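Re: [help] complex structure
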Amino acid sequence: MPMRSPLAVLRAALFGGALASCGLPGTGGEVVAVEWSFRAEVPDGPVVEETLLGNPWEVEILEAWLILGPAYGFSPTRTNRPGLASFFGPSRAFAHAGDDNSSGVRVVCELLDQVAVDLLDPAPRSMQVALGEADAFENLAEAGPVESMNIVLDRARRELAATDGPTGGGTALLRAVARRTLEGEDQEVRFRAVLTTETITTDPIARRVEGLPVSGELVDGAVVEIVADPRAWVRQMTFDALLDAPTNAAGEVEVAEPSQLHNAWYLGLQDPTGWNVSIRAAEPTQAP
Amino acid sequence: MKRWLMPALAGLLASACGSDASSTIEVSAFALMEARNGITAEQSADGYSVTFTNVIVEFEGFYARTTGGLDAGLDPSPVLAELVPSGAAGVYVFEGVDARRWDEVGYASVPPPADVQLMEGVDPELAQLMIDEGWSQLIVGTMTAPDGAVFPFEFGFPVAIEYTSCRSGTDLTFGIVAPVNGVAEVELTWHLTHLFFDSFGEDSSLRMEPFAAVYDGVNPIRTDDLEQQPLANLVDRNGDLLIDATGNPVLFVPPRLEGRPALTLRDHMLGARFGHFNGLEGFCTTSDPIIFD
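Output below.
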């Protein structure tokens, strides 16, 4: 057998290492392939009968889009790993005692791409459908239980960042009409707003929706499903300041600058009752 | 192989696997310079300053374990520690602890039981108030606005929270080292600025105006008064939408709570975690605070 030069061995090792790292979850453990799915759930229709602050409004949501991704699923808090295993086990991120609920846990599944989801459409949308079969890479995860998930309210990327895109180039888009009768006077505000990082916070930690509980276990072929309800977005909004605001050609107030509406929207997105994350096993294939 | 080599190696291995040598763990709580000097106007985004007259914290459940499954078997009873005016208080001394690295260390702060032990400087009346009200922490002080207006506050925390997997702010390693025939000094660093942070991410600011805005002019501002301030619609002392220096509505980014969203400034404050570990660069994993309404 001919001797290989040290350089050739090094090249081969580097190539092998790079190849081995491709597509692996990077967290150790048994690797399984999972699918991500997204769905809206608006029981009884997209109407909030009473907002929470001041003289309440009834709000009918006309359009609600959200950019989903990235999202990270975490294993149950700290697994004891004896002795030497701790040197080779997964790393863990630690941060400020007050600002990082993700301390002490590790990522076992992650959605790194972004998908625009119509939150008035109850039909489930898979990653493959959302991105197209050719663009959707196989999602690998680490087998086992998932305790919680973080969803990042991130900047829209690539074509999703276009101002004529589904979210108007932002993280989320909302069109709605708010109505109320106050002291015998009927009041109505139609508005369109885009949520961007500039209208809330550019801090990546603060833009996380943290610790959403997850039911289910990651197994080969499992479907990780994120369900969102946009009604949580509007419950803390007030519209008094928009009553006499100028409207666009569609008769809607365009809320573009940072506002109470944006802060309320952000806080609504943080509301865990507006989300449902579950993992279900793959459907058994039917015999022909 | 030399005949003496194997026994020597075996001896070395045995000694590396543990130690019967005795050690002491001393646990103290520190509230740093804020406990002594307060928070200056320059530290805050809205020009308010703060002084503290009492910071009483309940500690219990201090443990030292290894991720390999050993437990130091500490048996800490609940204590109340007063961190003002000195900024420091002794909490526990554990003697006869096995000397080794304990890499899984933590503690809890929960509403005190009736027989809670009062450490030096704790006012018995305030301690009884904490027991009766179910407060794991009591922070008393005053805020002073840029115009000189003074706002007294008494914030009780009906909160239970656990700090686990603590990492040292000194050497960034997990847990503590209990030295052979020596003392491991553990500092539970209580960071009072967290009371007024508008978020716990980067670029966060200290803001007191929304707290001052609920003052009735007579009684100290209490925890439940903060329910008047919805996080989605914070107002200033004039009742107008609270605006930051850039002209935008102030957003307080709430910490996560157990099972429900944070809706008001009360939720925001009660969800704050105060504990660092062995310095401000030391962190623990925290449970979601449980708030007893």
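Chain B touches chain A at residues 67-69, 104, 163-165, 167, 191, 194, 197, 199-204, 230-233, 241, 248-249, 251, 253-256, 259-263, 272-277, 283-286, 288 (CB under 8 Å).
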